[in-house]
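Thread: Newbie trying to understand structure tokens

Hi all, I'm a second-year student working on a class project, and my supervisor (Dr. K.) asked me to get a predicted structure for one chain before our next meeting. I've only ever worked with sequences, so writing a 3D structure as a token string is new to me. If someone could post the tokens and maybe explain what I'm looking at, I'd be very grateful. Here's the chain:
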Amino acid sequence: MSAIPSPDRRDFLRLAAAAGGAVLASALPGWAASPGKDFYFVQLSDLHWGFQGPPNPDARGTLPKAIAAVNALPAPPDFIVFTGDLTHTTDDPDERRRRMREVKAQIDTLQVKTRYLMPGEHDAGLDRGEAFQEIFGPTHYSFDHQGVHFVALDNVSDPAGRVGAAQIEWLVSDLARLPHEAPIVILTHRPLFDLYPQWDWATRDGADVLQRLDPYSNVTVFYGHIHQEHHHQTGHIIHHAARSLMFPLPPPASQPLRQPVPWDAEHPYRGLGWRQVAARQAPPRLALDEKPVTA
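---
Reply by user tm_fold:
Sure, no problem. This is what the structure looks like when written as tokens:
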């Protein structure tokens, strides 16, 4: 299995900008053919169940709308990933668990039964993931699908926003059995690179994680947290952020404070969405299809 030719950074960013919320399909760096079959999965992120406020007057409606859209897909995805912030933060441990049980009941209406969940800081930052693990299970793990190795990393249960030495050691051990050209997908909540640390859009030890991933030539990262579509490249590793299902946030450094984009009554749900990711074998590529939330 050999790595595919990589476009340069300028070509990649041009392709990403041209996606415009539609399909981004390219022989991107960080991807190569695997011995399995074509497949696709769905990424949902930043549900923030329990949020109330002007940035989304339909706070209890957007997740059901997205679930209905996924259930109506002509062909079901192989699985669904949730990249964190399933619930909105609360200081009350009982309320935290109630929100998690409610969002779990919503997720259980998905017709796709294979789901992979991980926490965001709103779920896990106040209790180091205790409630999340009670209701949803482990905060980090790995699995294989059609020749692709997936790793869910937890960079939120530590209130300082670190992956931590123990989990990095686990990651190194988990990847050690793989050839260096194996296709690897990392799923996480915060960006692993310093997108905009002033807004907490970074992982304190993300550089250490990326260093451990660097020997592997075909790595792609899918994350959430920043509530907007964003594409970035660090070396040969490609990073894709997903939109939120609750409220969009402004581009990094575009304004003094990190405040939700105001609700637009003339264009409700603008900036909210979810993503399909298709893994193609011939020619080898990832196709990202950005889906809006619609009434």
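A couple of things are worth pointing out once you decode it. The CA atoms of residues 222 and 240 lie 5 Å apart. The longest strand covers residues 273-281. Feel free to ask follow-ups in this thread.
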